[in-house]
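notes to self, project folder thing:

trying the whole complex as one job this time. last attempt i did each chain seperately and stitching them together was a nightmare. two parts in total, labels are on each line so i dont mix them up again. if this works i'll redo the older ones the same way
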Amino acid sequence: MEFQENPENPLVHIISSSTEAEEEQEEEYGMTDAEREEIEELIGYKFNDPGLLQTAFTDSSYKKEGFETESFERLEYIGDSVLNLLIAREHYVANPEFLPGKLTLLRAANVGTEKLARAAMKWNLHKFLRHRKPLLNDQIGEFSKAIEEYPLHSAGLVDSPKVLADIVESLIGAIFLDCNSSLETTWQVVKKLLEPMVDNTTLRPHPKTQLNEYCQKNNLQLEYENLWEKTGEVKVYVNNKYVGTGAYRSKRTTALNRAAYKACTQIFNDFTSPNPTPPVLD
Amino acid sequence: MEFQENPENPLVHIISSSTEAEEEQEEEYGMTDAEREEIEELIGYKFNDPGLLQTAFTDSSYKKEGFETESFERLEYIGDSVLNLLIAREHYVANPEFLPGKLTLLRAANVGTEKLARAAMKWNLHKFLRHRKPLLNDQIGEFSKAIEEYPLHSAGLVDSPKVLADIVESLIGAIFLDCNSSLETTWQVVKKLLEPMVDNTTLRPHPKTQLNEYCQKNNLQLEYENLWEKTGEVKVYVNNKYVGTGAYRSKRTTALNRAAYKACTQIFNDFTSPNPTPPVLD
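result (full assembly):
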């Protein structure tokens, strides 16, 4: 059924039962062949069962009366396990001397929400997400702007929409099932999607951890002034000297990390240098 | 080099450099061919690289001066990921209607410390563990007795030695690497080691959770008397009526779960019945 304009009175809509319109709607509701082919081209993998690909991009909000559809939740569950194993194996083989603690940190950086959400944006996967969440497009837009400001992995400086990470995981799950559980086939796609991987040379702790460790080691007094409830801001003082402010309205931990990042930049002069020469704070 | 008795003065040891003794010591230090074959027979898998099998059974405490050896920590890290994926896939395929929450519970029951420690005991894998932890054999003995009392998965009623679960995970990691990452080959061994798997019909929440939910639902007042610091015991009262005591010196949560288990048995008459008829507590 669809609403049609009444030519006699444009404010009154006529309800018609157009079978043609229904068929069109059904087609619109499903993923088109062109969309499928575009994704397959992007990721370099052709699906045997295109239904898996469609499910991988379907959020649970994408429901319409009369149309049965499965959401990506179950595929995401499988994809998460596949991704964990693939990344674990990669770092295990590449770093024969690393103990589990180090391997766990490396894996966390490569399978975390931010890393996966960035991968989704980089490969334009968000374009194909099927959802009916009114606020989501704005969140994705905000994230897209935020990562321009922090082009590398931000380690807690940006707030990443979970659904972007979800579709990467569900896509990995879909490929794994579609290729009959071949780890090697799945790995080819994962490697491409996630590059450049975070490795031992690019792994960086969250600014808050970094600042905390630095102050402890150098016997400096560290204090945060929490104005977040009022203004969305957090201010940092080291040995009673103001060293930076971080702001983020939607999430306090992100504001905190941004404040710590500003403080680190201020204290270390050059935050990215491996051997910073910090000024004396007294 | 080894110390030998001085026939002229038994208190003075002569340092000799006996190559024969060293060789004998080296052989004793490594896993024997007979041990390897026994394990391979038990698990139904023959290793291409027997070094991996030896590492899988070597605790980090098993060190001797002059002998380099790797412990199972890294293999355990890989095995944990492999096991997670294999169990996730198994339940995913077997239960097409289960959402991730349910799948996560099922997986947790099959990859948890107690389940894996029981598997190690069932298949006698603990016999081959190479360690120098003076208290470990007693702990294993205690666990062995405890599981006689709770023959099914106890869900928190016994305290399981983590090292027993570790060797199952490291063995799975060793097989996975040895068979060139074949999930199917690894799964054949895992299925055998872990059977019977906990499935939807045998999955059971911890007694504490069960008792809590029951009391909330039936509007009953639940209280624990904590005597653990003094006697290792916890007592439970429902609507001020004493319903059971649980005792376990080494771990408070185990004592608590045992108390809840006694209480459930008391309240439900037959705890194992799917439709218990609880008495009125007033």
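what i see at first glance: The two ends of chain B are 76 Å apart (CA to CA).
need to look closer tmrw
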